[in-house]
Each structure stands twice: as structure tokens, then as C-alpha cells.
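Protein record
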Amino acid sequence: MHGSTPHGFYARRRRTAALVVGAAMALTLSAVGPSQAAPPAGEQDGYRLGEGYMGISAEQEAAGQERRPVTPQDTSGVQGIDVSHYQGSINWGAVKSAGIQFAWIKATEGTTYKDPQFSANYLGAYNNQVIRGAYHFARPASSSGAAQANFFADNGGAWSADNLTLPGVLDIENGSSSQCHGLSQVAMRTWITDFYTTYKARTSRDVVIYTTASWWNACTGGWSGMSDKSPLWVAHWTTGSPSIPSGFPFWTVWQYTDSGNIGGISPVDRDKFNGTRDRLLALANNTSLAAPRVDVR
């Protein structure tokens, strides 16, 4: 099937299992804290650099439990996807024809990794009038928030008011042998603020925060410090409505499954925007920061 990458999909499952097994597997290395020696080449936080993707926390939380792919029950409203190199080559015309209106695309990770499919995906989405943006997978143990925000802005995370570009996303979740990347709650709040402030200075936009309720609550203490700055993109693979992190009053985007099939891509994360297309365009064009976060539950 066009755009399908079974190897990448099963590799995701294998990585999840490796994290659960722990020391018995080679991938589960010791966490690298800010004051420790630099990680081996190609590795950060005890994880292979480049293997971070949206939803890895949800994968890890589900590991060891009986899982059934969630059948999307509410595909009404403004629908989107998020992708990385795991999806391979994507037919963006087919994605658009299938009703997808927006997409976020992996651009960077840490301060050295660039997703090899980013340029093709970013241009393909644009050429097919899919409103798209870039996302950065955070590696807080390896470098400062400012350093990673600059790397992101320099390598795909910029923004322009062209009706087709969404603000960048900070994907902040697990993906490490240490759930909170070896940082305390206070240090993590500082790291996120550092990233936000730098990204805002570089692009004039408030970064969107992608996370899970369990990660945010554990690693920031349910911090409310970003709720009036950053739209929330919550990952919760369920039906009905998502659980949102403490500190945020509502969600702007909801990743509701990782087992979607759309436009020839399978599996792919499916997302829903909390509002109308006009509000999505407002978020893209920065005409209103608050309006796209109106709670429509």
C-alpha cells in the first residue's frame, strides 16, 4: 500500500517492548542527565537518536497490557494527521482527497537530527493545500531548551503567514530510559520555558505543546504555566473525549489513535482539531491566539 511502512510500525512496537523489559535489552541504557558525560554517538537519553515520534509515551504506557487498535468513532469536524519518516513516501493528494485538512510533520530531534522525509512531506502537504506545520521531538537531557528551539527554527520549524503554515510543535513526552529525561519538575519547567521563549523570539509564534496527561502531570507536576501561552495537543488513544493534563483547561488538538488508515497510509496517527476550519486558519495565521482554544466539548 502506498506510504505504508510495516517495518517502521513493528519497530515502534519492538522499541516499546525494549523499554519495558529494561536492562535485559540493549536499547534500555542508563539515562543521561545534564551533569553526566555526553551520550555515545547516535544516542541520547539511552535511546537511539531519531527514533522519537509523536505518541511514544502512549505506546510505552500501553506496553505490557492487552491493546486493541482504537477504531475512530468521531471523525467529524476538522481532521488531521501527524507523520514522520516512519510513514515513508506519502501521496499527499490522496491524503487531501480523504478529507485531511491539516498535518504536523516531524522536522527535528535534539540538536543534530533532521527527519529525512521532512522536506518531501512539508512540500507535498503544501502543494496539496493541506495546512501543515513542523514538530520537534524534545531531548531535554541532552541540551538546553534554547539550543533545541534554535535548531528547530533553523531546520523547518519557522513560520510564515501564508494560510498554509501552522505554528511549530514541541513534542515533549517520554522516549527515554528515564520518564522525565533525568530532570526534576522544576528543571523541566525551566527547560520548556527556555524552548518557548526562544521559539517565540525566532518566529513570533507561541509554540504548540504536544504531550500526554500522565507525562505532563508526572514531569512538570501538572504545571499551569503554559496554559495561557501554548495551545495544547493531547495524546490519548480512546473514544469519546481525551484526558487532559492538569494545568490546561482544555485541548486544541487531540491525537485519538495511532492505528489510522488514511490516503494509503497505514498505520498513521489521527488527530482532531477542537473547532471549525475558520479557527484552524486563525491558528495558522496568528489572527487570534485565544479563539482556536475555545472548548467545544
